[in-house]
Amino acid sequence: MSSGPPQSPAVAKTEVAVEGDCPLLAATFAYWDNILGPRVRHIWAPRGEQLMYLSDGEVTFLANHTLNGEILRSAECGAVDVKFFVLAEKGVIIVSLIFDGELKGDKNTCALSIILPQAELAFYLPLHAVCVERLKHVIRRGRIWMQKVGSAGYNIISVLSLEIAPIMELLASMKSHSVPEDVDIKDTVLNDDDIGDSCHEGFLHKAISSHLQTCGCSIVVGSNPEKINKVRFTPFSDPLCSASQDSTGSFVLPFRQVLYSPYPTTHIDVDINTVKQMPPCHEHTYNQRRYMRSELNALWKTDSEEDIPPETVIHTDETFTPDLNIFQDVMHQDTLVKSFIDEVFMLKPGLSLRSTYLAQFLLLLHRKALTLLKYIEDETQKGKKPFRSLRNLKADLDLRVEGDLNIIMALAEKLRAGLHSFVFGKPFYTSVQERDVLMSF
User: Fold this and answer.
1) Which residues are bridge partners to 39 per DSSP?
2) 20 in the Ramachandran plot: left (φ > 0), alpha (ψ -120 to 50) or beta?
3) Lowest mean pLDDT: which of 110-114, 147-151, 295-299, 355-359?
4) Containing domain of residue 131, as a range?
5) The predicted structure's pLDDT at residue 2
6) Which of 137, 154, 177 lies at the terminal end of a domain, its last residue?
C-alpha cells in the first residue's frame, strides 16, 4: 500500500474507536453515479495508528473493482450479491455486498464493503459467513431508511454507522481474544487429576453436551478468568467466547447479537456451575427472523435513527414480543458425552492418551453426522421428498436418546446448513402457531 499522506477530506470519513487491534483497514459505502461512475460516499476506519491505510486513489481503485460491471445489474428486488476479492497487487482483501437502493431520490446500485490486509486472510475466512450475515442485515436497515419518505437516503450514513462500529468491535475482539486453533488438552478441565477442584463431573458433562448440541457455540461467564479459560479452551468444535462478571456479579448479555448469531448458543456460568441453552437451530432461525422483521418494522415507523440504537430490544410490533428468556434448561440427556467423560478420566493425565482418545471421539461424532446426512439423503431422494421417518432414523443409527440425536444433528447442520428446518420445519411451525393461539386466550 502507499505510504503517502492520509486520506483526503474529499470523501467523508468516520473514525471508529475500537478497543484493541482491529484487523479491518476500513469499511466503505459506495454507489454508481451515472455521470461520474463509482463514487465513494463514506469511509469508516478504526481510530489509531494503522500499519496500512487507504489513500484517495486507492479507495477509488477499490470502488471501481466492486462496482464496475454492475451498471447493467439484473437482480430480483431485495437481492444482495456478495463479492470477494483478493487483490495481491494492493495487498488487500475486499468483501463487498452489492444492492439496489434509493439514494438522493434515484435508484442506484450501491456497495457496502469491508477491507482487510491480505495478511488477515486466514483469520477472516472462518468468520466470512458471520460477517456477510451481519452486513446483509445492515443493508436491510439501510434500505428502509433510504426509502423512507422525506429522507431520500441523505441520512443513510447515520444508520450504517450504528451497525459498522459493532462489526469492527466484533472482529477486533475475535482477533485479540479468540481461542488458539491448536488447544493443548493439558490446559483444559479434561486434564485435571481431581475434577472436583475446578468443576464437578455432572457440570462438565452438561457443558460439553450442550456445547455440541448448539453447534459448538457457547458463552462462558464467571469471575475467575483462569476457571473460564479452562472451560473455554475445551477442545470441542468451534472456539467459545468468554466474559467476566462485574463487581456486582452481573453480566449483561448482548441479546441482539446472540439472537442474530447463525447458530443457537449455550450459556455456561462457571461460578454457580449452571448450563443453559437456546432452542435448536430450526426454532432459533424462526425466532431470529420474527425478531428481525419486528426490528425492521420498527425502523420503518420511526422518524429518527437515534430512536433505535442497535442494542435496543424491539417491542413495537404488536404481533410479536421477543422472549427475553431465550436460554432454557438442558432438557435432553445423552450417552455419547457421558461415556466419553467416564472413560477419558480413566486414562492417566499428562500423557498423549487423553488427546488421542479425544481425537477418536471427535472422529466418531463426525462419522455419525456424515452417516445421518447420507441416511436422510437416501430417504428423501436428496431432498425431493419430505422426511417422514425420524423414528426409523433413531433406531437405525442408534440415536434413540434425544441428547445423542441433538448432538449429531447439530454437527450435521454445520456440514449441511438447513438440515434442521428440512427435518423439523413444518411440524415446528405448526406447533408454534398452535401454541401462540392457545396463549392468546
Assistant:
1) 31
2) left
3) 147-151
4) 12-177
5) 45
6) 177
- Taking the C-alpha atoms of residue 366 and residue 374, their distance in angstroms, rounded to an integer, is 13
In total, how many domains does the chain have? 2
Q: How do residues 301-357 score in pLDDT, each as one tens digit?
A: 776 655 554 555 454 444 545 555 788 888 888 999 999 888 887 877 766 788 788
pLDDT at 166 over 90: no
How far, in Å, CA of 277 to CA of 283, rounded? Answer: 12
SS3 readout for 358-380: HHHHHHHHHHHHHHHHHHHHHHH
> Would you place residue 440 in the very low, low, confident or very high pLDDT band (cuts 50, 70, 90)?
very low
First to last CA, the chain: 65
Dihedral, CA of residue 136, residue 140, residue 142 and residue 148, to nearest 10: 170
Query: Which of the listed residues 144, 177, 210 is the one where a domain comes to its end?
Result: 177
Provide the 3-class DSSP secondary structure of residue 49: coil
Sheet strands side by side (includes 218-222): 241-244, 218-222, 266-269, 274-277, 328-329
Q: List the one residue out of 341, 24, 102 whose CA is nearest residue 212.
A: 341
